[in-house]
Amino acid sequence: MRTDLQPQGYQGRKQSKNRLRSGLLAALLLSAAAMPAAAQECGGDFEAWKQGVAAEAKAAGVGAAGLDALEAANIDDKVLARDRAQGVFAQTFIQFSNRMISAYRLKQGAANLKKYADVFARADQQFGVQAPIIAAFWGLETDFGAVQGDFHTLSALVTLSHDCRRPQLFRPQLVPLLMLIDRGVVPADVTGAWAGEVGQTQILPSDYLARGVDGDGDGIVDLRRSVPDVIMTTANKVLSRGWKRDQPWIEEVRVPEDMPWEQTGRTNKLPLSQWAAWGVTNPDGTPLIDNGLKAGLALPMGRKGPAFLAYDNFDVYLEWNQSFTYALTAANLAARLAGAKQFDPRNPETGLNGDQMKELQTKLEARGYDVGTVDGILGTNTREAIRKEQMRLGMPVDGWPTPELLGKL
Question: What does pTM read for this prediction?
Fold first, then answer.
């Protein structure tokens, strides 16, 4: 059940969960309403900027402990370096997933599903999120709690909020973290990932406040040390992003040599009967069985690579992490933990290296496409631009960048 986020070691009577929820929401709303205009700005004099954040936090009800922690926070250059060097997402889906879906994670995942079966069952009953979903995030994020990160969380969020690259992603997390610190839920020197997440499934402070669940009934929501708290809170977070109870997320399929490729893509969801009519089958070649749901056809490495039906629940993975490669890997690990076989990599067409990808993105930008940053990473915007150019050029529309496409541009 959802309980108060009490200080470590608290032994008193639990507060009303409804009072907690309303109190937290009221505090966050007050924070938004009372925020001084200057406090929303990034950059500039760091100490003056922190004073603006302090005024915002104080208006939201943060007391001396939280404000003192903010005063002691500093810019962490290592965080900035990490933010600008996410080269891991330049890997292809096959490369990334083969590395992340390791034998260790499959073995430990299966063991934890058995060890905490009763907690997973409660999470499924209460939130409708299947056990393998939670276990996959748990394994990918921290190897089931073993590697939770050693960055000073408050300084990390202060750094990323003051920096003007992506403050809109990190600034909303500052006041919730100060609330957690002020109430003694986490210590002022709490550590975690470089981007401000804490705990065994790397939860952001706003989700810690709004979605935290006391899974072991001790009156404390401890996402660093309590596995029941971690499992229940993770399920609550997944549900909050739009998870649909008892529905699938991805399903590996085999695609034919030719079909209307322009109809493919994660967002173009069609009945399974339509995919079957175009020759899409189960991996073993047996016909798809229409389950009454709609799904898009995801081709992470083009029409000659692995293929997956992506249902509405897969979109939740992209709410967790906007990288399509990470999201599909997490979804695939969950499928493996649920009993699916390793996917067939097939034989994708040769892709582009990092410099070629940057050249492609530069050419797409010159044609008026918004590809975000020219970083050599095949992100959502770049994939969509590729599809439009493939269609214009009369090429199979599968969103996969090839030397042939680069040459034609």
Answer: 0.88
